[in-house]
């Protein structure tokens, strides 16, 4: 093979190689990259089109965050690091100084510890006037320490102690109270200074538990147990131990007379006693249960 023919073949091979590479670059690789760049450009265009909306949403979120931070830094409620029965009892007595006298006893029911906070549960049972109870509950809910009432029952009760006096109304009540605490930094806070809430005037309004027409119950001149104002302390198969509103302990058996009625049934398995009362011709069934504390 002559030198000229060999050079021609080599040159032709180079031309074919160059043509193949050029064809691959211009017809396969570059169109693919172009389509990819076009998709990216469309995505960027979509983001740019959404930017005003995103900026508005960001502004709203920033304003909301600033508002929440301001509320947190100026929060009124206080969550102590811990809670004890003595501290809660002392706090309730401070509230009572503002609300008026509320007679009650308190039982510790236990604690519940959650991830960042916990609370102690207390059972309160007592009696007072409607106005005092209204203010007592209002201060519990609105004063600085974080206490919450999780359950409550109350009723209006008429009674007469002397024959010549008019019927009196008292509000026996039971409530379940939760005292919150937390040792987590940023959540807990110490109690500082007096609580201004306890100096606020609280309007109680009209007593919804006051009967429109008084039943004028008979006077309790014999000092019988007033069931609705008493606390059941123990239940045995044939008798119950009950403490009246004056702190006196009575032992009752089925059929024994109480104020406005009698003891109907003793249920030891459920730690309760059932009474039947005659309230001015209206027969009422009252069940007392033993409250257990820890």
Q: SSE string, helix = H, strand = E?
A: HHEEHEEEEEEEEEE
Number of domains: 3
Total beta strand runs:
12
Rg over alpha carbons: 39 Å
In CATH terms, the superfamily of the largest domain is Ribosomal protein S6/Translation elongation factor EF1B
What's the short story on this structure?
The protein has 294 residues and is of the alpha+beta class. It has helices spanning 3-73, 85-99, 130-142; strands at residues 103-113, 118-128, 147-154, 157-159, 168-181, 231-235, 240-243, 249-252, 257-258, 261-267, 272-279, 282-289.
What would you say this structure looks like, in words?
- This protein is an alpha+beta fold and about 290 residues long.
- It has three domains: about 1-75; about 85-200, Ribosomal protein S6/Translation elongation factor EF1B (Alpha-Beta Plaits, 2-Layer Sandwich); about 225-290, no CATH class.
- It is built from three helices and twelve strands.
- The chain has helices at about 5-75, 85-100, 130-140; strands at about 105-115, 120-130, 145-155, 155-160, 170-180, 230-235, 240-245, 250, 255-260, 260-265, 270-280, 280-290.
- Strands 1, 2, 3, 4 and 5 form a five-stranded antiparallel beta sheet that branches. The chain has a four-stranded antiparallel beta sheet with strand order 9-10-11-12, with no helix packed on it. A three-stranded antiparallel beta sheet has the order 6-7-8, with no helix packed on it.
- A hairpin with an 8-residue loop joins strand 4 and strand 5 (about 170-180).
- Helix 2 (about 85-100) crosses helix 3.
- The chain is elongated.
